[in-house]
Amino acid sequence: MMTSETTQPSPIKRALLALEDMQAKLEAVEAAKHEPIAIIGIGCRFPGNADSPERFWNLLNDGIDAITEVPKNRWNIDEVYDPNPDVPGKVYTRLGGFLPQVDEFDRQFFGISARECVSLDPQQRLLLEVSWEALENAYCRPEDLSKGLTGVFIGICNNDYAKVIIDERGRKQIDAYFGTGNATSIAAGRLSYLLGLKGPSLSIDTACSSSLVAVHLACQSLRQKESDVALAGGVNLILSPESSIVFSKTRMLDPEGRCKTFDASANGYARGEGCGVIVLKRLSDAQANGDRILALIRGSAVNHNGRSSSLISPNGPAQQAVIHNALNNGKVSPSQVSYVEVQGTGTSFGEPIEIGALEAVYCRNRSSDNPLAIGSVKTNIGHLEGAAGIASLIKVVLAMQSNTIPAHLNLKELNPYIDWQNLPITIPRVSLAWPNQNTQKFAGVSAFGFSGTNAHLVLEEAPTLNFQSAQLDNFEITERTHHLLELSAKTPWSLEHLAKKYIDYITQNPDIALADLCFNANSGRSHFVHRLAIVASDLKTLKEKLIAFVEQRQAEGVFTGQAASLPRIGAFFSGDISSALTLNYELYKSQPVFKEIISQCEDFLNKYLAFSLLDELDGKQDQNSLIHQSAYRPILLFVLQYALFEQWKAWGIEIAAVMGQSVGEYAAACAAGVLSWQDGLKLIVESSGLALRQEMIEEFKLMIKDLKFSLPVMPLISGSTGTVVTDQFTTLEDWFKHLSKKENTQFMTREIVGSKLEQQGCNVLFEIGIESFLSELNLHKIPQLKHLISLNYSSNNWKIIFDYLAKLYVCGTQINWKEIDKSYFRQRISLPNYAWEKQRYWVALEDDNTEDEISLSKNISHFEDLIKNLASSPELNADEVAFLPKLAELLKRESQKQTPDEQAYSGENITLKAISRKAEDIQSWLAERIAKELGVNASEIDVRVPFDSYGLDSVLAIGIASAAKQYFNIEVTPMLLVHFPTIETLSKYVSEQLEASDLEVFEI
Measured between alpha carbons, how far is 135 from 278 in angstroms, rounded to an integer? Predict the structure, then answer.
């Protein structure tokens, strides 16, 4: 016999176990330090209209040179240009890589006031839009990220807009927003603030290496678990000539405006602008979440040149060291790397040093049969300075995905100061297939700042494509016959143009899977007020319905609506069971919640009644089937109703109140929490009077005695009395007494059901039953009920279900698409980004006669759309069509003129009249005043929309409160705009204060 002593491990054994445990922990820590970081999303704006990863790749793959002359809206290049670099105050090049319309921004989307926007650096504006696009590309919704730790790491080293403001208007025009609008430190902070991200937030300036250093720091933050998700990238805009003048004096710019990297004529670089942002996760987290992985960052490193020949001179040993460190950090050998995206600014001094570093690290033991390929994106778009590194990184990711290294431009004759003949290095002058096709792809990316800070990253191609994981549970699932696409936007214009983007996308991608398109659009994007839902069976039909929406034509399966708030849904469980009962096998096979309840009910009924639910609901019953017997049908109805209720609940349908009719009261009581659904099933079996299995009778009686009734967790309206249940049901006798009332089945009319649920604040009526009892309800008789969803279970296909989901979506419900598609394979794909509704926000010229600094113009695309539509109109002749471009120009000029609402308040004319105390008149004054503070038209202000949605902050609140206090002669403080956050609520407060005052108030 064993004693307790003999069962205990010996001290040596315990010591060995402790050592093994410690070793496992150390290995886990070491593995975490080197865990690959997954790139799961990309957003970008680069020269050459490369405003998406797809367009950027097309530019690279087509070998496009995106360098142009300085745009006329930046500065007058003729006044600043002189080919002689020694002329003071001049630049010796006219060219660079530029972005279009950098003065335009969708401020309403981000809730920034027009007044603040004028002082807001366009780099910050650009960063907001591109970061949002990167998150969309990653299918990461900010509302989800705000629940965890999301870091923001942004490289930014220029600040031209502050110079523009002061040069145009002088110091007198510096306002309260100038500081936050132009401080580079705010670039990352504003992004974190507006998106609600709570992880580390850093703006980084190491000159040309800023954005690659930002990516390195983001990877470190993820590995140290400071962040669970990270946004990393950089931004650069060239808005004034001063920096170009400085670089001209240091002879850093190429006179011909090109980066001629590794060419014999290389003589400096071309300045460029752009923005790139990537979304990062730890690989293990990305795989667990089913994210689409674009590439992996295996290792990264940062160092400094230290004491060199000069502050801005490159340092070969430092470059070698940073590359070595990045490889070691990623546990990658140099021989595995087949391509390096180099710094390559195009200077005859720096290029031999960089090649020397590459030779020392990557070319040792490398044969000429396996050369290292190198190239530089700067030959396409210029040197993006603070955003240069992220542009290089994105190029490499796209090249890996396309299995192609794009051509390196501007290379006619190799740099003679480099011994190319003895180097196993190749520079692709045309696009070429990625070398070593049978091995995993690895690449390096370098960025060396003239601050002396160097960065190098080692990238690996993505692992096998990820799919939405499916819980198949050993049964076959066929793809659905129909799918639902949800689109939304913050304005009607953006929704229409988002639909146009999807039309173009489908045209260009005719082989895309409809299921993948809908799943990605529905589950990975934020949902806004203006909504569109389309039910379709194939891509062609979806495209036709999108076109119908854009053309404002009615079409079956197209639903639109505004979702200002979540709807309050009232569920009605009808008791009619005259139709044939069948099981929705599509739901049973594909939806785990529905299947679980049906399966448990099947087990229970088999055990106690010798009755197979699945056999009876297979749709093959004859006249002798039990399903036709009146005693069985209520049981079947209950099971189907409650299973449907729980399934719709799992899909995101939140019920606010319930009501039942006849047999439907059982399911309603369970839905309200009065009974568990298991007890509800026992109760309805008890009430059926059916004979139990002989051996189960005693056990069943004990279960019935133990039934537990609870108070409702939501309003439960009695089907017999029409009143809200409070504590009527505490015992079994109470329940059967309630059901025995004869008026129970006679009480209901459609209007009574609707009005009772409307009294509970419900504005959507959702019927769950076999027959559509409420389908003929006239909603006009109940004004607060806006929508009726009558679920006719006998029509149990996906088209009907999606029609209901579409109706619920457009009235504000958030559908849980990951739950709906849980049992299907879904692949992550790229989809169109949000359609920005932009306006122009720029500091006004010094000689502008208006006193307000805000200069607005409608988005150019508005006019382009208008002109395009008019040009195709049969009502215009050729001469009239020819006049349209001139008309567009006139319209744009007119739109840039300020309206009276946008002009500064003069306040000189004195009139005397009594102020109205009516709420609507107070609302009108507040709307005018708030519009003036915000810098918009009063027509844009909705009295029910919260002030913060318009970008109203403490600065603006002080001005509004001061003006209101003076105008109404009552106490109005900025905090009142917090307590009363809309014009509607604030006007009621002001009206009440005026009524309480004995003073007669006059307007002066």
Answer: 8
Instruction: Put residue 552 in one of left, alpha, beta given phi > 0 → left and psi -120 to 50 → alpha.
Output: left
Report residue 20 as tokens: 């093994």
Q: For residue range 272-306, list pLDDT tens digits in order.
A: 999 999 999 999 999 999 999 999 999 999 999 88
Question: What is the residue-wise DSSP string for 3-41?
Answer: -HHHHSPPHHHHHHHHHHHHHHHHHHHHHHHT--EEEEE
- For residue 48, what are the contacts with CB-CB under 8 A and spacing of at least 6? 59, 64, 66, 97, 380, 381
pLDDT of amino acid 1001: 46
User: Rounded distance, CA 466 to CA 912, Å?
Assistant: 71
Q: Which CATH number fits domain 913-1003: 1.10.940.10, 1.10.1200.10, 1.10.10.410, 3.40.50.300?
A: 1.10.1200.10
What does the alpha-carbon distance between residue 858 and residue 937 come to, in Å, rounded to a whole number? 13
Domain segments of the chain as ranges? 33-461, 468-566, 569-811, 913-1003
What is the mean pLDDT of the segment spanning 347-374? 90
Q: What pLDDT shows up at residue 931?
A: 76
- Asked whether the predicted pLDDT for residue 907 surpasses 50, the reply is no
Q: Number of H helices and number of E strands within the chain?
A: 38, 31
Q: Is the pLDDT of residue 1000 over 60?
A: no
pLDDT for residue 241:
93
CA distances from 883 to 283, 326, 872, 888, 890 (A): 57, 61, 13, 9, 11
Distance CA 740, CA 559 (A): 43
The answer to whether 683 and 666 have CB atoms below 8 angstroms apart is yes
Provide the CATH topology of domain 33-461.
Answer: Peroxisomal Thiolase; Chain A, domain 1 (3.40.47)
Q: What percent of the chain has pLDDT over 90?
A: 47
Whole-angstrom Cα distance, residue 245 to residue 77? 12
Half-sphere exposure of 741 (CA within 13 A, CB side): 18
CATH of the structural domain 468-566, one choice from 3.30.70.3290, 3.10.180.10, 3.40.50.620, 3.30.360.10: 3.30.70.3290
Q: How far apart are CA 295 and CA 188, in angstroms?
A: 24
Q: Is the pLDDT of residue 430 over 60?
A: yes
Report the pLDDT averaged over residues 336-344. 95
**pLDDT tier, 890 (very low <50, low <70, confident <90, very high otherwise):** low
Give yes or no for a contact between 825 and 468, defined as CB atoms under 8 angstroms apart: yes
Backbone phi and psi for residue 204, each to the nearest 5 degrees, phi listed first: -120, 130
Instruction: Encode pLDDT of 1-15 as tens digits.
Output: 445 555 778 888 777
Token pair listed for 96: 């660079």
Burial-class residue 710 by CB neighbours within 10 Å (0-12, 13-18, 19+): middle
The DSSP result for 419-431, as a single string, is -GGG--EE--SS-
Q: Where are the alpha helices (DSSP H) in 81-184?
A: 107-110, 114-118, 122-138, 142-145, 160-169, 178-182
Mean pLDDT score of the chain, rounded to an integer? 83
Q: Which CATH fold would you assign to the domain 569-811?
A: Malonyl-Coenzyme A Acyl Carrier Protein; domain 2 (3.40.366)
The answer to whether 559 and 487 have CB atoms below 8 angstroms apart is no
Q: How far apart are CA 202 and CA 220, in angstroms?
A: 13
Most confident of 399-413, 865-879, 948-962: 399-413
Q: Which of 684, 669, 672, 661 is nearest to 574 (CA)?
A: 661
Q: What is the pLDDT of residue 8?
A: 79
In terms of pLDDT, which residue wins out, 239 or 588? 239
User: pTM for the whole thing?
Assistant: 0.85
Weakest-pLDDT range from 122-126, 818-822, 859-863: 859-863
pLDDT of residue 344: 87
CB contact at 8 A, 594 and 768:
no
CA dihedral sign, ordered 30, 322, 234, 332: negative
Instruction: Tell me the sheet residues that pair with 768.
Output: 573, 791
